[in-house]
Amino acid sequence: MKYALITAAYLAVVGLVAAPLHFYGFKRSRQTFDLTFFGVAFVLSAFGELANIVSTNWQYHPKFFGITTTGMVAIGILAAQPLLHLAIGYGFLTLRRWAFYLAVFYIADVLTSTVFGYIQEGFGRIRTIFLVLLMPFLIYLIARRAQFKR
């Protein structure tokens, strides 16, 4: 229940930030509000990702396409994750074509790591959420690909 409230609060904040940015700050079609919403969500999630990394004292061993990393490679991947979220968010907000490809790369990495996590470690709540939500998000992005024009 705690996580449901945190998720609801996060989505409410994203919506409250995305709506004014979309309708007043950016001069673009109202057809792209969903991409603005996702852009703000990615930008805000960068700070959550950074907080998660700092709270684990950089001891977390991230996976890169299913391969568990350690040492300097892990630190590099951990440092790149918030930057990747910021880049994807900026690209979504400005409708850059490269943001679509960067998002597809990110989804491929997370899905591969999730599937390997299921094989190696079994069921997990976070892995299940990623598995259930990322495939429809990928299909949705492919359907909205034409909106990324610049």
How does this structure look, described?
The structure is a single chain. The chain has 150 residues and is mainly α. It has helices spanning 2-25, 33-55, 71-94, 97-121, 125-143; strands at residues 63-64, 67-68. It has one domain. The protein has a two-stranded antiparallel ribbon. The model has no long low-confidence stretch (mean pLDDT 78).
Q: Helix count, per DSSP?
A: 5
Content of β-strand = under 5%
Give the termini distance in whole angstroms.
41 Å
Oligomer: single chain
Domain module tally: 1
Q: Quick one: overall form?
A: globular
Main β-sheet description: 2 strands, antiparallel
C-alpha Rg, in Å? 16 Å
- How many E-type strands? 2
Structural class: mainly alpha
Report mean pLDDT, rounded to a whole number.
78
Spans of at least 5 consecutive residues whose pLDDT stays below 50 are none
Arrangement of strands in the largest sheet = 1-2
